[in-house]
Each structure stands twice: as C-alpha cells, then as structure tokens.
Amino acid sequence: MTRQKYFSLILILGTLTALGPFSIDMYLPGFPAIAKDLHTIVADVALSLSSFFIGISAGQLLYGPLLDRFGRKKPLYVGLVVYVLSSVACGFATSIESLVVLRFIQAIGSCAAAVASVAMVRDLFPIEDNAKVFSLLMLVVGVSPMVAPTVGGYVTADFGWQVVFLILAGMGAAILVAVYFGLPESSKPDPTYSLKPKPILNNFFAVLKVPQFYTYAFSGAISFSGLLAYVSGSPLLFMEIFKVGEKQYGWIFAFLSIGLIGASQVNSVLLKKYRSEQIIFTALFCQTITALLFVIATNLGWLGLYETIAFIFVYLCCLGFTFPNASALSMRPFSKNAGSASALMGASQMGFGALATVLLSMFEARSAVPMTGIMLGSAVVALSILLLGRKAIPVTDDQPELEAPVGMLH
C-alpha cells in the first residue's frame, strides 16, 4: 500500500468515524436556543441527545449483520442517505417531540458509518497495526470536538440552530461521494451469511462469549459512557451554571478535546514500547483516581470554572489512551465476523452512553455533582470489568496473563 493510498484510506475512514461525533457536538451550543424556540427546557432538549445515542446503539446491531452479508459499501450507502434526509428534517423540526424522533432516525443513518469504519480497519490493515490505525482515526475524529461546537456556537448565534442541521446534511452528502469514489470494497458479500433472527443472534452470542471481546469491549464502552455524560452535561454546566456564552462554550469544548486527541496520539508513541494491555490498565486506573478527586472537590464546593476545566481535561486524557486500545483489543480475535463484532462494540459504547445521559437527565440539581458522579461510576465499573475479565482470557505466549501497568514496570 502506497503512502498516498494509506493517507487517503485513513482520511475517509476518519470522516466516517467522525460523522457521529459531529452530529453530537455541533448542536450542543444551541441547546438554550432550541429550548426557547420549541418552548421547552434545556433538560428536555438533552433528550434529543439521549435518543441519538439509543439510535446509534440499536442501529449498529442492525448494520453489523448487513455488513457481513452484503459487503461494507452497500449498507453504508443506505445509512448515509438516511442520515442526509433526516438531518434536513431536523432543521425543520417544530416541536421537541419531533426533534427527539428525528434525531433517533439520524442516528440510525450515522451508525452505518461508525460500524463500517471499524470493520474496514480490520479488513484493510495488518492486525498488529490496528491500534495505531485507531489512534490515527482518533486524530481525524478529534477535529469534531475541537471544531464542531465552536462552529456550532457561531452558526447558532448568527444564523440559528436550524442551519447547524443543514450543514450536517451537507457533510453527510460529501462523505457519501468520498466513499463512492475513494473507498474500496474491503469484504466480499457472503451469501451464506443468514439474516434470519436466530442465526444473527447466535452469531452475536458467539462473539459475546469470547473473553477477549467482552473484557475490552465492555470496559472500553463503560469508560466511554463517562465521556458522553460530560458531553450531555456540559451545556448545563458551562452555559447555565458558569454563565458562559454560546461562542465561549464552543472554545472551552474545543480546548478540552485537545486532551482526548492529544493523548490518543501519544498512545501511538507508547505502543512502540508498551503493549495495549498495559496502557489501557494504567489509563483506567488514572481515570478512576481523577474522577474520585473531581467528585470530592465538587461536593466540597472547591471548584470554579478553571478548576473544573482542569479536572475534565485530565479525565479526557485518560480516555484518549483507553479508547483506541480497547477498540483494537476487542477486534483482535475476529476476521470473518468483524462486522458483527464491530456492531456489538459500537452498540455497547452508545448503549451505556445513552444510559448515562438518561440517568443524568433525571437529576434537576443545578450543579456538577450528578455529572461528576456518573463519570466516577463509569470509571470504577470499567476498571472492575477489566480486572475481572482479564482472568478469563486464555494465556498465550504473546499475551501474558497480567502485565504491570505503564510506569510500574521497574
């Protein structure tokens, strides 16, 4: 594979992976404006975020089998068309109820991109390079939280929140064209793959029974739910509690995303010396300690705006190490069923994320306590699953039973 071809594949796969995050991040600064125009409250607008997460979670289970049966590109085309049409419809929503439903449909479309991109990494690149490729995808994805809320803040302030969804529709259309012309079909259709419910469920259960998969997929997914709790709670935290404006919120969100993206790129360097198993263990341990201190300081009322930003920054840094390694380790045992494995991994990420956002919406306290509590809970549970699940992973010559975390090797 030439360097130019390698770069082209990473760029297109990265834009596919970034489509969902852009759909999440870009309209966040518009929460107060949406609430005002649709005659509701910010907490109810957050339900449109929860419905998006639920749609991605459910949709990935749908697209996984389709990607294995029909190849990668045909289901991807269908998903992108659904995404474009529903994004336009979101821009014309006249009630919070219709927006919540349309966001669910929009998610069903966008999750085709998420599942296909992960499966195609497994198809197109050597297995030993998967963690590095996922780190590079994180660099492309990193454009989303750095650019999307900032652009969304300016667009909302100057043109209205409706235009944000029209921009997202244009992005979806551009990605569809890029996929058609620039992305090869990486997996031949498998006519023997049954789409009947029983074989599909049996295939999912076969994937779930693999200790390597459920350990890293679930620990990574639950850790990821802490990120989505922050994303869902950030408009209330910064714009309602700390009283920052839409444009300022976008810049804060972009700055915090540097921690997530920067850590994912440092991860590529660390992989030259340490194994993915070591890095993810250390990252989850640090994430738990950071979240614990964050909860304590928040409850004691010690934190202002800048201190809050600092704690979230460190927390996101930990996630930047966790996510690419969890993805690579989860997918490592699979080749033929990569689509189904990718779907289950993505569904678990968004499913737990949806649970975190719904749980957060149940609290009406105008403080950071509910958000920080959920962030701590996700870190603790993720670390516990990692420690317990690794005991069930078969020991091989190239995969020791338990490795010391980074920084504790000597």
From TrEMBL:
The chain crosses the membrane at residues 45-64, 76-94, 100-121, 133-155, 161-183, 204-229, 249-267, 279-303, 309-329, 341-363, 369-389. This is Multidrug effflux MFS transporter. It is a multi-pass membrane protein. One of its GO terms (cellular component) is plasma membrane. It comes from Adhaeribacter swui. It comes from the Bacteria. It is found in: Cell membrane. InterPro entries: Efflux_drug-R_Bcr/CmlA (IPR004812), MFS (IPR011701), MFS_dom (IPR020846), MFS_trans_sf (IPR036259). Keywords: Cell membrane, Membrane, Transmembrane, Transmembrane helix, Transport. Residues 9-397 form the Major facilitator superfamily (MFS) profile domain. It holds the Pfam family MFS_1. Belongs to the major facilitator superfamily. Bcr/CmlA family.
